[in-house]
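=== RUN LOG ===
request id: a7f3
mode: sequence -> structure
chains: 1
length: 498
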Amino acid sequence: MRLKHFTLILAFAPFLLRGQDFKDLEKRVTEFTLSNGLHFIVLERHEAPVVSFHTYVNAGAVDDPSGETGLAHMFEHMAFKGTTTIGTKNYPAEKKALDEVERIYNRLDAERDLAFRADPAKIASLEKELKQAIDKANTYVEPNMYPRIIEENGGVGMNANTGVDATQYFYSLPANRIELWFLLESDRLLHPVFREFYKERDVVREERRMRIESNPQGKLMEALLAAAFEAHPYRDSPAGWASDIENLRAPEARQFFKTYYVPSNIAMGIAGDVKPAEIKRLAEKYFAALPAGPNPPLLHTIEPPQPGEKNVEVDSPSQPIVALVYKRPDQRDPDDPVFDVISDILSGGRTAMLYQAMVRDKKIAVAAESAAAYPAGKYPSLFVLLLVPAMGHSGQENEKACYEVLERLKDEKVDQATLERVKTKLRASVIRGLDSNSGMASQLTWYYVNYGNWKKLFTALDDINKVTADDVQRVARKYFIEASRTVAYTVEPKEEAK
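=== RESULT ===
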């Protein structure tokens, strides 16, 4: 598993602290699958009259169609816009207005597709007409009606996020409002309306400008991914490329929804003060109407072997940053927990190797961090190290010092005390990480989708505990090699670039 997931797993830690065994915990979890393929995992936890809901869609930025990067992210922004009955002042009139928007947009795209033969005056006229049509459609919108219903019924934590591998939607409600979630969530999947699509497209574009184009580290990591991956979609910016975002269309979003938001590609976690029989009854009542669909197409692109080290420079008038990445296998590989342990050995606080060597002793860096899997873990990905040189020290100096630490990891077995300290720290992170219904619902669905069985959640600590010093040395020697490395620097722009 990836470290960021590992440190969030085992929401049952509070139970473990009370000495209850796995069998008792297992009795608290119920799962069932509707005839359309939609899977539910239910955890009974009656300590408080609240329930958390988590919808996990097994589709993220990696599934964006070519030329439509950023499309999966759009669904995070469409998440709570409403349905045919929620969020509209007059849906029949709104639908006509939305259809008119697309008709005008089709004419505009057709003219633009003429390239140098296009008529600029006609394009300008259609752009004006399109704006007027969008403004008219937006007059039928009842802003924030969907989230307002949730908040008025005691809902908290309503949000969504788009990852590289998945898109997730979640919030919590009082236990006496359970049926409201079933009504709202099923309606959102049965009758979605992509209202204000082009308004939200502008928001997504602005997010990219803020988080990547105006952010030195964002620019660096985007360039790094594009260099490290030659073929696999992990090379594409998870935020989407600017020109793709600017040209996303609502019909494309509907097709993506039809392809990936099928019941068999979704898992729902429910944790809290619930009765499984009642949850199953409500699931049948509200979600059985979702039509079954074919499973989404598998991603067949395999990253070819890297022929040698790659280097990238990104102009940025900021403090220097160095990023190093090495190719690594996916999260289902037997060596996956070894990468989690290595990451913590290298950068898990003030006792970590990188901190001691580069920050404390040599004082050449102000930060030296690592992450076990980047940008995600469903497919073969990257082990990443991020270095921030101290004032008066260069990126090259930091890079060299980092290699020296990695060579020590290869040449000298990590001592047992360090290994045990790392494992203890990870266990402590587990215990602190998810003492909440929302965390439980999240991790149950994550493990079910990514490993085919939520019970993998219980064996994650065992996997970490089995990691030995020999494993750490073997994995370091096997994967931290020059041929699979990509190095990226931010550099001061040359005078002509300025």
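=== NOTES ===
The first helix runs from residue 3 to 6.
Residues 3-287 form a domain with the Cytochrome Bc1 Complex; Chain A, domain 1 fold (CATH 3.30.830.10).
=== END ===
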